[in-house]
Amino acid sequence: MTVLLEALCTDAADPQALARFWAGVIGGQVAHDRPGAVTLVPEDPRCVPLRFRHSDAPRTGPNRYHLHVTTTSAEDMAATVAHVLELGGEHLDVGQTPQEGHVVLADPDGTELSVHPAR
């Protein structure tokens, strides 16, 4: 049996806006391929598509997942953080320390994301 991960699906107050945000972060095309959902198909075929499904349910706590974005250098990391903030992301304090070497942010819906330096 072959199983493929088709997309990472999450609820969103405004799926279209969240798809545009993530398209600005990782690149890709926004598709309306499911009723009530918007899918971001990344430019890089190694990346999993992100699907945003409309929900009016209030968030009751942090998500049980967050996305990691990698960069190519310290300068690229700083530029990526600045770009995410320009797109509507926010800094998020989850107890990380400067020694950890990554920056924790949140997308406009409050979902955590981490920007990591080159490995």
Automatic annotation (TrEMBL):
Q: Look up the domain of life of the source.
A: Bacteria
Q: Which Gene3D superfamilies match?
A: 2,3-Dihydroxybiphenyl 1,2-Dioxygenase, domain 1 (3.10.180.10)
Which ranges carry the Glyoxalase-like domain?
A: 8-115
Question: InterPro entries per the record?
Answer: Glyas_Bleomycin-R_OHBP_Dase (IPR029068), Glyoxalase_6 (IPR041581)
What is the protein name for this chain?
VOC family protein
Please name the source species: Phycicoccus endophyticus
